[in-house]
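Notes from the 1:1 (GR / supervisor)

We went over the backlog. Supervisor wanted to see one worked example end to end before approving the batch request, so GR pasted a single chain during the call. The sequence is below; no edits were made to it. Supervisor asked that the structure be written out right there so they could see what the output format looks like.
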Amino acid sequence: MDKLKTFKVEKGTDARHPEEVLDRSSIAGFTLIDMAIALMVIGLLVAPALYQYKVWNEKRAIDITDSRINSINEAIRVFYYENGRYPCPANPDLDITDASYGEEYLQGGGGTCRNSMRLAGNDAYEGIPPIQALRLTPEDTLDGWNKKLVYAVTKSHADPVGGDPSDTVANPPVLTVEEYKSTQGVDGAICPDITNPAQRTDTLVHYVVLSLGPDWAGPHYKNNSPGPACPAATGFSGFEKNENCDGDTTYLSSICTRNPNTSAALNTHFDDMLSGGENLVTKVPSDFWDIARSGTSDMGSNAGFIGIGTKTPEYEMDVRGNIKADNKDPADTTTSGDLHANQFCDESGTNCFNPAVIAGSDPNMECPPEKRGMTGLGSNQAKCNVGYPNFPGRSCPAGLKMTGMTATKICCNHSCIY
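Structure output shown during the call:
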């Protein structure tokens, strides 16, 4: 029997391979301190980038929302020109992929908008913009957060039968927009003017288009899932978060100059976007002046008569006063300040002449060689050889100058005796 071999395993050796001495101190690696420092450096580099991305993304969403609200306003204006009324809202409960998404939601028979969309008081409707009637895309009904925009309109201005926004006496608009403007709040702080009355209240508003912001308290998401419940109004602290989704005809705009970054539980939170200020429609749309297709700097009008200095014009352009046309800008070589016309007439409009008679070349202003010369103007032509036939040859005495003539004499130094 072989003698059992034994090995002495010393500290720092592997019992299975005693000839190999393990020196773990020579193995390189990261310690927890190394990892902590690396993560801290990465955090310092990434945090500003994430903040800038958040700011960019918020601005992008706001810009998209503002652009789509403006597009809808313009499309509603065109719809009014073509139909003499505003469109009915579309059904907000349909999915964006539904074939009927964006159609005007009408009552059976089509004479009125859908009764189920009436707001409190039954004088207005609320839904989403009817993009099929407005010839827009389904995406145009979504704000920058991919949530459906809200469209509300006075009932008597939108019903297909009898809707007439121009009759504001018998059928006045009923929507109201209260616009609050105060110093931008910070997270956890109360807006300085939050308890003051509205600085601006627009009544008799025809329609509104608004986004309920990223928190979307109230109606519907893009995919037809309902948003968070409309918060209850608890005095003014809940009023601003409640007004745009409570089902009445009053809407709010610009509380705390929009303060979307505060917690939704705070009084200062408000992230809605409404087409407000000068963009509110409180008058019937007019195509009196319209932007020409040739460029945004050109305007045109299809109006019958336009008066300047008078409210009762009698002509296409009726000016009660003076007209000035000049060009005092030496750098502008294309504008001469000329007045272009092919006829100039007196006030009665019966006695007119062509400017070419005076400023251009006109055969009627020339006397033929056999005539003795031009003796006057009349009836848009020269008068030739009708003044003084067979006038005897005369001359002024030495030292005198001819100053005129009569039928038989010449005037020398204003004395007609020669």
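Supervisor's comment: The two ends are 176 Å apart (CA to CA).
Batch request approved.
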